[in-house]
Structures are given as C-alpha cells and as structure tokens.
Amino acid sequence: xxxxxxxxxxxxxxxxxxxxxxxxxxxxxxxxxxxxxxxxxxxxxxxxxxxxxxxxxxxxxxxxxxxxxxxxxxxxxxxxxxxxxxxxxxxxxxxxxxxxxxxxxxxxxxxxxxxxxxxxxxxxxxxxxxxxxxxxxxxxxxxxxxxxxxxxxxxxxxxxxxxxxxxxxxxxxxxxxxxxxxxxxxxxxxxxxxxxxxxxxxxxxxxxxxxxxxxxxxxxxxxxxxxxxxxxxxxxxxxxxxxxxxxxxxxxxxxxxxxxxxxxxxxxxxxxxxxxxxxxxxxxxxxxxxxxxxxxxxxxxxxxxxxxxxxxxxxxxxxxxxxxxxxxxxxxxxxxxxxxxxxxxxxxxxxxxxxxxxxxxxxxxxxxxxxxxxxxxxxxxxxxxxxxxxxxxxxxxxxxxxxxxxxxxxxxxxxxxxxxxxxxxxxxxxxxxxxxxxxxxxxxxxxxxxxxxxxxxxxxxxxxxxxxxxxxxxxxxxxxxxxxxxxxxxxxxxxxxxxxxxxxxxxxxxxxxxxxxxxxxxxxxxxxxxxxxxxxxxxxxxxxxxxxxxxxxxxxxxxxxxxxxxxxxxxxxxxxxxxxxxxxxxxxxxxxxxxxxxxxxxxxxxxxxxxxxxxxxxxxxxxxxxxxxxxxxxxxxxxxxxxxxxxxxxxxxxxxxxxxxxxxxxxxxxxxxxxxxxxxxxxxxxxxxxxxxxxxxxxxxxxxxxxxxxxxxxxxxxxxxxxxxxxxxxxxx
Length: 733
Fold this sequence. Notes:
By secondary structure, this protein is of the alpha+beta class. It contains 13 helices and 28 strands. The chain folds into 4 domains: 5-130, Roll (Ubiquitin-like (UB roll)); 136-222, membrane protein fhac (Ubiquitin-like (UB roll), Roll), CATH 3.10.20.310; 227-317, membrane protein fhac (Ubiquitin-like (UB roll)); 322-729, Beta Barrel (Porin). Helix 1 packs antiparallel against helix 4 (86-102).
C-alpha cells in the first residue's frame, strides 16, 4: 500500500520522540548555564552548516569575552544570551533524525555527549550522528489519477509535458530526498495550473521495501476542469484607478487561467510606488466545494469546455507623499547625504514625482583632492508606458562639481525608457541634453616626451587652456542593461550581475564632442563552505572619438584630448583598485596651482590630478572571511586588485608614456567589515605591488624637478606612498 512521504516522516518523528532520552541526566544545569561549544561527529550526507541551522540549542560562539567588550562601544551590538534548555536539546535530536529521514536515511541514530565546566557553568556538547544506509529510488512513474482516461494535454504543449515528465523521472537511481520528490510533485501540478487547469493536483505515492533501502515513487495527476480568466475586480484602491491597475498586470479576460500570471500580477503591481501591498486571487478557487459552470458547452471541436473565473485584485495604498534620505561616508568623497521627497501618485495614473538633493561634501575626506558634488534633480516617472514592463522617466537637473577634473556647473534634461521584468533584469534607453559651464580646468599635461611639464606650465600661464572653451554642450544617447542572478541582492553569497552600457553623442551638431563609449561591469560571488565568500569584479571600457573630436592638421591634439577628459576613463579608489586614491591609478599629473606673491606668479601643487585615458581594464578578487572569535557581525577581507588605464592613439600623441603610467598595476591588501544598525562599515588598506615612479614621488618634487630641468628618476621615492587606506560607511563591495 503506497504511503505518503509526510506520513513516513511523521512516524519517524514519533519514534524519535519515543527513543530520545536525557543522555546527560546526571549533568546539573541551572538558568545561567550556557553552551560553550557545540560540535558534530559522524555526519556526512548533510553539511554541518545545515545541521547547525536545524539546532535550536545555541552555543556562545568564539571570542565571547572580546564580543562582550566590543558590545559596550556605540553602534556595536553585544552578544545575545543563549541559556541551555534540556528539553530543547531533546527536540534537537528529533529534528536531526527527521532531517535525515527526509534525505533518505530512515535508520539514522542521533545521540549526544555532554561535558560540564563546573567552575564556569558552561557545557560542551557533541552531537553524534550514525547515518545508516541510504534509500535509493528504483522506479518513478507519472500517470493520470483516472486509470481509464488519458491526460488532456493542450494542443501544442506535448513536448513541454514530455520535458516535465523527464525531469521528474530523473530522480530514478538517486537517493530518495523528500524535498526533491515534493518539488517534482509541485512542478507537475504547476504545469497544468499554468495552462488553464486551476484545480490541477498531483498526489505522490511512496513504496519502500522491507529493508528500507529501495523506494518507488508514483505521481498521479488530476487536471480538473478547464477555465479562463473573466472580469477583473479591483478593491482597496483609493487614488489609483482600476484602469491603471489593469495596465500593470498580465491578466486578460478570455485567456486560459495561469497561476504564473496571477503571481506575476502581484509582482508587477508592486512597481507602482503608491502600492504598498497587492494581493491577486480568484475567489472561486478559495471554495474547494464549489464547481465551475462551463461558459462554453462542449461541441464537436477539440477545445475543452471552459469556465470563466472572476479575478480579484486587493490593494493597500501607501502614503501619497514620502520623505526619505541616506547618509554615508567614503574616504574619497567624505560625508555624503541624499534627501528625497516623493509624491507617489502625481495627478493619478500611478505617476511618481520625486525631488532629489545630493550633497557629496568632501568633509573629512582622507584624500588631498576629494570629489565634491551638489546635485538637485526633479523626475517624473510614468509606469506602464505602452507596456506594463516599460516606464518612462523625464526630469531636469542641475549639478555643481568641484573635483580633480574641474570646477563647473551643469544643467540638463534626462529622458529615459526602462524595461524591467524583474529586480535585477532591466534594459534602459536614456537621452540627456546638458550644458556645462567650466569655471576652472584642473588638469595639466605630461605628454610622452614631446612637451615637458615646465613648457606646459608656461602655456597655462599664457592662457593656452582657453582653447578648450568655457562651455561644453552634450547630447548623449545611452543604452544600458542589468542582468543578475543573486541569492540575496542585499548581501549576496552566490550569483552574478552584469551591467553593460553603450553611449554615443547624437546629434553631434549640438554636442561639443563626438564619441562612442562602451563600458562593461560584472560582479560574481561564489561561496566556499558556510562562512567564506569569494567576490570578484571586472570592468572594461573603451572610448572611440570621431568627427569633431579627432584632431585635424594644424589643430592641437592636446586640446582635443582634454575636451574628452570628462568622459575619459580612470581607475582607483574605495570601490575600485584599492591600492590607489580615487581615480589616480594610471596617467596622472601634478595638480598645479598658481598664487600671486608680490609681482610674481608662484606655482605650487596640491597632490595629483587624473589625466585619464581612452581605455580601462580593472579587476578585483576578494575573499570575505569570518573574523575569528567575534561572531557573524564581524568579518575580514583579503583582496587582490589590478587595473590599467591607457590611450594608445597616435592621433593624440599618447601611445607611449616614458614614465610607465599606462602599464598594468596590481595591489593587495585586507580589511575589516562590521555590521551595525546604521549599515555596514568597511576599513581596508591596499598596498601597491608595482607602482609607477609618479606613485612614489611627491607632486611638489616633480614640479621643482620640471622647473630645474632634472629627470624624474633622480627624485626621492617614498615607500609609504605604496599604502592607501579606505573607509566606507553604508556601502558594500
């Protein structure tokens, strides 16, 4: 007689309760007794990490005394207390036996040994697991619940049904795992419920031989009546209309019922900012005793009779107006804050109007020339723009920036179309027209031997840089996408995410420059065991100037290059190659400033400015490790970063760099990570493995050498410049 897997597991649970006995009855405990160490012995098929998650008995964990001390610091949580309970330990034995039974080990024995530290009132517990022989699946069949009839597979779906059956039968020859058997059952049922059979059900029969080493699975499919979607009824909407709701969901009257489309409708409705909770269901399916009344009678055609099911959408709206913000810190830009005001149903239709202000202050930054930016933007988002997965965004913006590139103010307008089916899968097309007024350029030139630094400084004093112009217009079309599969988007341990982007200036008649720009960023995560994660990052990009941005005969190629400086590539910094300051890996020049002393102009330096390049390649491999004896809120990291920025274009005279700044550079280092109530905090230090000469020489020394005509090789090199320290609050890798 076939027996359901759940009945088998329930029987084992009852047996385990009967077999369990207090092995440590002689060990005295009180309300203050805690577990110091909890270990496993003899476990093989199930990982120790999985067994630990099943246990309700908790150990103090390593480094308890140190964690208590750190818990007295602000924002650092103290370790939680875990008093020992003998009853909970007995229940843990039952849970472990049930887990092994669900994995095909019906004869597993679980017991424990307990040792007590009398002086400290602590217990050391060892859970001993004896698995026994596994149960193998010898046969799998899929049949109709009615042995006298065949399954009504919809026309054109025969190959799909055969594929689902093959996936189910693939269990044959493997160890019996209840979760796998249940998943195959659910997959069979859902296949029918996605093709017009809302009450399709699948029952599972399990037969185990007397020795318990072989099992046979039988799936019986009952499709039930065929049905179609009917009228859509919307409830709970206060400010958004039923028409707007209908545009956002994939359910249409007359189409065959699909469970997937009901689930997708709830996901799509959550894309409306005003919707806090959305529930989509079919009331007729809630009553298991009700029967469907066919809307079409069976006739001579092959189409089955169908019932019409009313679909109900229940919505809970959020506040129409919302104010929020974030605060963070990175060493390259100091404290950063963002404030947002949003109207989440602006004039109906689910539109969202958002006013955003960003202040990247540079306050307390640990670099000499931080990136300072202030941005104010207004955006209007229209959902379901022609399609439920497409939204349109339009908004003006103004931005003031004071960084290593320039001191400037930009105003512009963005229009964007976004296609988004899932959170980490999207495609966007953006057009931006903007005008930037440059008040002061902040880059100089160390050309490849044609012009030395001193000569170029003279050119600056004579106003040669004016040839760049003080106003830059841009007209940009950008196509970008995101594709990712992550186990946890907030704190990923496994998966990959890829972000490609292609940008072009068009039409070039209203743009100061002309170029194509291709960029690709990818991140990957791979767990090694239960506590170690390997995180990787790869970036590659190339700039392709054309038309007016290519120097003609008689034009200064340096001026053409510098006109593209704003879109040129750079590398280095907290979220990049961590052995270098922000954007200072690769070609760079002293940040030369002039001040009037008496009747003379005196030059001095304030560190380096990135010169940039037309191509970039960077990578990073990071091992995220637990911090011994400090628990899950503390971690450590080891990394190897590398990158190269170069141009290699004869038209701009920058193919060869005599100072070796366009080579591939590597850095290694490590750091600490903390989880706090205000977000993650990361402190890291990077060490340059193969720095260029400009990485080791002070910018002021280069300036004096240029003025004196001395070669750079004779300048003093400082080994402490190999180190670079980074601090990030509220950001992740």
